[in-house]
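Worked Example 4.2. Read the sequence first, then its structure tokens.
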Amino acid sequence: MTDTHRSATRLLFLFSFLTASTYVVTRAMAISTFLARVGAPLLPACILGAALTVIVLSMASAYLGRHLRPVGLVAGTWLLMAAMSALLAIASWRWSESIWALGSLYVLAEIRGCFNTIFFVTLANEAFADSDSKRPFAVAASGAPIAGVVTGVLLGLEASVAQLAPTLLLMSVLDLATVAAVIARRKYISVRRPRPVGKKQDRSPPASTDVTPQRRYRIHLSALVALKIAVLTLIGYQWKVAVGDFYGTDESRLILYFALFYAISDVFIVTLQWIVSGALLDRFGIGIALVGFPLVLMCLGIVSLFTSSVMALMILFTIGKGLHVLRRAFHDPALTAAYTVLQPNIRRETIVIVKGIIKPFAEAATGLALLLLAARMNHIGITMLWLIAIPAWLLYSVRTTHYYHGHFATTRRTKSTD
């Protein structure tokens, strides 16, 4: 790893830590207050509203991304995050039971989650596109689970006294710290690599310069992400409903549950990211992560078909949601690395389209389906929906893996002849 890569890794680790801290706290508070004060039946409407909002904002981000550098776009986005958090702090203080205020907080949490992913993947690809190792992706991404551990423990300890308005104001301060960090160290994630000269300029691997394979690869990535998000949205909904049914309207216990859940799972995530993830991806490639995660979820779904009690469902879907340990430690770094084979001029646009438009569109479609069907279906019917989608998810995972490794095989052959 070069000195530039080390500096970029440290900066992206800090970026991941700060942005994940605000996301974890906002998400835990949003889910807990919504379930306790409004109830689970309106969750599908929130999922749909959040997804539609993210689509609009992502389209605006994609447009601005054509005219602004990633660092400038990051700074502007997190300044807006700080402003939105401050406004919602005032709204939640004045209208503590308002469905609109609580629903807006839920939407803000989803916006944070989406843009955290978009900009981390964008900046990581800017910084590590020329790195042969996947370890920098995993180490930089480990800032998020460490943030989850720290904020989860703190929020869990203060669950009985945590108040929404002061917490949101603190999130605004962390947003401003994110802006300051990115601007101060922007040179490490805005590297302008020299273009090749001479004959080598025309000797790029066929897999990376042929437009048709690149387009197919983007389709495979898009389908993979859309199917994954549809499955995870359905599982997430079942998890929240099961937890809400178990704890009822006890807001303090809900905050404690969500805070400790994220803290404990993030301990496993960061341990795997630091010790196992990078070495495993370097040794076996991205396929083991892209294919393995949906296979594990399929096994969970089959088991859930034979479960019915409130406590058993809460435990089972807590385990199911806990499988995001595998997603965050292995699947997400592998998916982030998958974008590196795209040509630089279309990589940024692809990341924004996939993460910022296709992902929330899949969430919106799933939220709409839940809005129309959830009241008529039990957990078995909903589970069957995402079990049916997993084989297609596996298919596009295999196709993405095949193209990715085919690209690097071609690159190695080209380098060996130079």
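Now turn to a second chain, presented in exactly the same format:
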Amino acid sequence: MAMNQWFRKGNSRRFYRIDMPVRYFIVPASPIKDREIYATGANYYPSSFHSKAAAQRLETLHWANRIQEHADLLMPVFEEIIDFIEFFGRCALSISEGTNPKSDLSYWMEVKDRLKGFKLAMSLNPKSPKTYQYIKMIEDKYLAFLNRLVDSIDKSTPTRFWVEGHLPMGFKIEEMMSVFHAPKFAKIPLIQTLLHVSEYMDTYLETYRQINDDNFLRQHPADWKLKVANVSASGIAVNLTKRFEQYAKVDVLLYFEEDDRIIQFDGSVVDIRSDQTNYTERVAINFDFPDGKHQDYLQLQIQKQEVKECMNIAL
């Protein structure tokens, strides 16, 4: 069923559909089989990811090419950072497809070599120490993620992708980038290059965070983010940064904090479309032979949300 039909018919069918905030966790029902390392089977690098990354890369190089002071030193540094970012992406892509980087000794040695950090940045310190400090902040965040990725690969097996827990958050570079968003920096090439290369890196790192979380958060429902979804007692439609195959079987878990209750449905992907504006995948899922008690409970939560919305309108 086409996505637009799925939504247009929504409120005329047996179950009323409503946009409501909900904590959900959605993964393929079965992992990829017979691979070197455990992989959920989701596509973490869909076309929406590539569109976003390509735009950010282009913007980074656009501003880098406009730098004048110390351009001979800075351009190679930013090119190296881009290379490090894309190397991380290739490594994360391989494990998402069930390929263990350790199976290729030379490649694994290169992964370990990247743990030493950016090599060209040191040349900036004598002539541009402030810029060097910004680059080091970017490097600190990059290495924090790469170390965790390497640790997971070292300890993973074909039946389990090992994760330590949540990936780190709250880096110094994030505070600095929030400052660089100020209008007064909008036309300064160096500042804009730092801003865009940091955002480019985040696109890759946050994709790995999704991989990490899909292997960790299932048992931690209180940590599932509260997001708006289109929900009925027979299905759900959500915006994700990952993609599933058409007709793929998925596990859909919903957590309701007020009752500390998880309900689970077996689902089938009935439609999925790339949103190139918001760089997400819009996924529609039907519940297959849903448990009646879970369905009734979900219907009750939908009705409660309707009451809340009516009260807000009245106020």
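Notes for the reader: The mean pLDDT is 92. The helical segments are 3-8, 47-64, 71-96, 105-114, 129-155, 172-180, 189-214, 292-314.
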